[in-house]
Write a structure and sequence with these properties.
Low-confidence stretches: 1-7
Number of domains: 2
Order of helices and strands: HHHHHHHHHHHHHHHHHH
Largest sheet: none
Mean pLDDT: 88
Number of helices: 18
Strand content: under 5%
Shape: globular
Number of strands: 0
Helix content: over 70%
């Protein structure tokens, strides 16, 4: 029974600020690590294979991001369900979620992987992939699709661990995966030492190997440690397609996945608007986007942490702690994101100069864009943290609608109309305006909405078959 003793949900006890900080830190470091991994791999591909190969991987990565958005939503639904059940001391129900999710993710990964391998050329045609990059993109994409089962599997296990209060273990194995990927990429692309020269296929194979090794070792580690939510021989009956429970996971997960799609789509449309102002403006916006992606990371990590913490406390019926988690998360976001924004403002030109040649017009534009937009990501953080708490109760549709309103109905029309009518600067004012509206709407829903009555755990548990 020792593993069960360690299984008691730690996120419902102890000081909230310290617990939230220690829980969100590995998530933050993991987000930074993934971004660095992608950036370094792009450098390897660009250095060894040139711009055409880089364009090929960019097109493939758009497809992977869309798939990860959808699987992210369902895995977040699993986080919330696992967390609420553990908060309520219902370990058997949490295991039921794990068993059903494992079978569902395995089935979906095989279907998606095979479909992707077969239809990669047609998918890339739909993306209007440049003809000179098409052949390379097909090779790269097909290998990436072959690795989908390990990608989906890792995301599910990471979600279950975070739902149970463990953010450190996923980070350690993410670190292993990133290190393997970064080291293997140049070896397999260029054929260094005993490794074969595989070109762009080598980059995809490096990612495949890294994900496979990390996923398998993670599972071995959890079983060696007798992790309390592992599926044992006595739990094999839980490995089944429990369709009513899957329905709950999909109904709650799809809006969270679509939220990522909304964010991505709004950025693509914004790029289209900026392109009209010339290549220097596009380059400056690209650099500002790279920098802002790191500025957003504290808010994203805190948002993920408050979702896990709040879900356990909702399951335990500790609504006073849920309220304190919310405002502690908001305060952390203001402090961490605000500090990061202040540092970048102090070294704004140096930060932009890491990506652009000094003295050109683009670097001046990049500095100017940062001056107008970076501070608004504090508002984005409030928007994200409050939405994370609301989602932890199972209320996922209203946060999606608010994101749609703020990013597609406010930011894009504002940037398009006022940018054309009054000039370049109005595009950047669309950031604080849209984020402020999103934050205000989420706060209003948090204060006056009925999200506390979502009853996600009860809906999922009603699907349990009679014994």
């Amino acid at each position: 029974m020792k593993p069960q003793a360690k299984a008691r949900p730690v996120l419902t006890e102890g000081p909230i600020a310290k617990t939230l900080f220690l829980f969100s830190l590995p998530i933050l470091l993991g987000n930074v690590l993934q971004s660095l991994n992608g950036s370094i791999n792009s450098i390897w591909v660009g250095k060894f294979l040139g711009e055409t190969a880089l364009a090929a991987t960019s097109n493939a990565n758009i497809i992977m991001f869309f798939l990860l958005s959808l699987v992210f939503g369902v895995s977040m639904a699993a986080v919330i369900l696992v967390g609420q059940n553990l908060g309520a001391q219902k370990v058997d129900e949490a295991k039921r979620v794990v068993g059903t999710s494992a079978v569902f993710f395995a089935a979906m990964s095989v279907i998606v992987g095979l479909a992707g391998i077969i239809f990669s050329p047609h998918i890339l045609d739909l993306l209007n992939t440049p003809p000179d990059a098409k052949e390379l993109a097909v090779k790269y994409t097909q290998i990436m699709f072959a690795g989908i089962p390990f990608m989906f599997g890792y995301n599910l296990v990471m979600a279950v661990l975070r739902g149970s209060g463990d953010a450190k273990t996923p980070f350690y194995f993410l670190l292993l995966s990133a290190a393997l990927d970064i080291v293997l990429n140049p070896l397999l692309i260029a054929g260094i030492g005993p490794f074969p020269e595989l070109g762009i296929s080598g980059s995809a194979i490096a990612t495949f190997i890294a994900q496979f090794v990390s996923f398998v070792l993670l599972l071995m580690y959890l079983y060696a440690k007798k992790y309390f939510l592992r599926i044992t021989r006595n739990d094999l009956h839980l490995l089944r397609l429990d369709w009513p429970l899957i329905g709950v996971l999909v109904r709650k997960g799809l809006p969270m996945g679509l939220n990522m799609v909304v964010v991505s789509f709004s950025n693509l449309v914004l790029i289209h608007i900026v392109n009209a102002f010339g290549s220097e403006s596009t380059a400056a916006f690209g650099v500002a986007t790279q920098i802002s992606s790191y500025v957003q990371m504290p808010a994203m990590a805190i948002g993920g942490a408050v979702t896990s913490m709040a879900s356990q406390n909702i399951g335990a019926g500790k609504w006073d702690r849920v309220s304190r988690i919310t405002w502690t998360g908001v305060a952390f976001n203001i402090g961490l994101t605000g500090s990061l924004v202040a540092v970048i403002h102090l070294f704004n030109r140096e930060a932009v100069g890491l990506f652009l040649p000094l003295g050109g017009k683009a670097i001046e534009l990049g500095v100017h864009i940062n001056n107008l937009t970076l501070w608004s990501f504090i508002l984005f953080g409030i928007f994200n943290v409050v939405a994370g708490v609301v989602r932890s109760a199972g209320a996922v549709v209203v946060p999606l609608i608010i994101s749609f309103i703020a990013l597609l109905l406010v930011r894009i029309p504002f940037a398009e109309y006022f940018g054309s009518a009054y000039g370049f600067d109005m595009i950047w004012w669309s950031f604080p305006i849209s984020f402020a509206i999103g934050a205000a709407l989420n706060l209003l829903y948090y204060r006056f909405g009925n999200w506390r009555s979502a009853r996600l755990m009860e809906a999922a548990n009603r699907t349990k078959p009679a014994s």
